[in-house]
Amino acid sequence: MIDKQIKILQTAIAELGEIEYPLNSNKQKYGKWYGLNGVPWCAIFVSWVYHHAGYPLGKIESPLGIQYCPSALNYFKSKKALTNDPEPGDIVFFDWQLDGKYDHAGIYLQDNQDKLTFMAIEGNTAIGNDSNGGEVMIRQRRYKNAVFVHP
Questions:
Q1: Cα(first)–Cα(last) distance of the chain, in Å?
Q2: Amino acid 84: pLDDT
């Protein structure tokens, strides 16, 4: 892995276990930093990680990066940043219903041996609430629900 990937993953891993407070409020340090506390924050978490790792995403939806999965993905599509060969530290967007509407974002960690699933570090997730669960976790996900971005 290159230094950029290592720093992004180290920054994300250091946040594992962070939760919103109060519970179910969408209030946490990432939204406070971004200036949008109390809103769904998976993409904001991704922006926070990239920024604090030393690789800010830049002015996409705000001066600090991304906040809304559909428009963020449209931006990356316009920049031809999508990839079918994700690398650790890349951004991943999830479409749970396979309806073309991307509901959630995270950071790609690694492929699993079954080649059908992978591991991702995600903010605002939980077992039983994939897109608004209030915690930073490592989750196992299916490739069929994912689109990858190499910013």
A1: 16
A2: 96
